[in-house]
Amino acid sequence: MVDRELLPVFVYGTLRPGRGNHARLLRGRTVAEEPARMRGAALYEGPGYPYAVADPEGEILGEALWLPADRYDALLASLDALEGYAPGGSANHYVQVIRPVRLTGGDTVRAWVYLAEEGLAARLRLRGRRVEGGNWPE
């Protein structure tokens, strides 16, 4: 397993509470969940899910999810598998990065987030459909 900081995960699509992949992979398995915003990225429509793309003017609405330390690696590995992300892999659709997210109470925390890898991000910026308001689906 790759050594990663035990940070919350910022989710913005099907992993958000109340949505399908959250129910399948995370419901009842998180320590805490809080609505949050992430600046510096925009959402683009994907095939049934969104892609977050780095964008200095963008903002995404989502949730910060805290995972229990004793199951952190296993839960993060299940999210990696869902996202088609292999740490250090060369054929990823996403990259996993640390970004600041602002919680509803105003505090800012560092969180893991999956962003579209740069080749895909460039295609989305050129021909993709941006999710206005940064809230998917709305």
Describe the protein in words:
Pfam families: GGACT. With 138 residues, the chain is of the alpha+beta class. The protein has one domain: Hypothetical upf0131 protein ytfp (Roll). Helices cover 20% and strands 38% of the residues. It has a five-stranded antiparallel beta sheet. It is globular and about 40 Å long.
Short synopsis of the structure:
This is Gamma-glutamylcyclotransferase. By secondary structure, the protein is an alpha+beta fold. It has helices at residues 20-25, 72-83, 118-127; strands spanning 9-11, 32-45, 50-66, 94-103, 108-116.
Produce the secondary structure layout.
Blueprint (H helix, E strand, L loop, with lengths): L8 E3 L8 H6 L6 E14 L4 E17 L5 H12 L10 E10 L4 E9 L1 H10 L11
Antiparallel strand pairs: 1-3, 2-3, 2-4, 4-5
Organism: Streptomyces blastmyceticus
Protein name: Gamma-glutamylcyclotransferase
What's the rounded overall pLDDT mean? Answer: 93
> How many domains make up the coordinates?
1
- CATH class categorisation: Alpha Beta
Overall, the morphology is globular
What is the tally of beta strands? 5
Quote the beta fraction: 35-45%
Order of helices and strands: EHEEHEEH
How much is the radius of gyration in Å? 14 Å
Q: CATH fold name, please? A: Hypothetical upf0131 protein ytfp
Specify the CATH homologous superfamily.
Answer: Gamma-glutamyl cyclotransferase-like
Low-confidence stretches: none
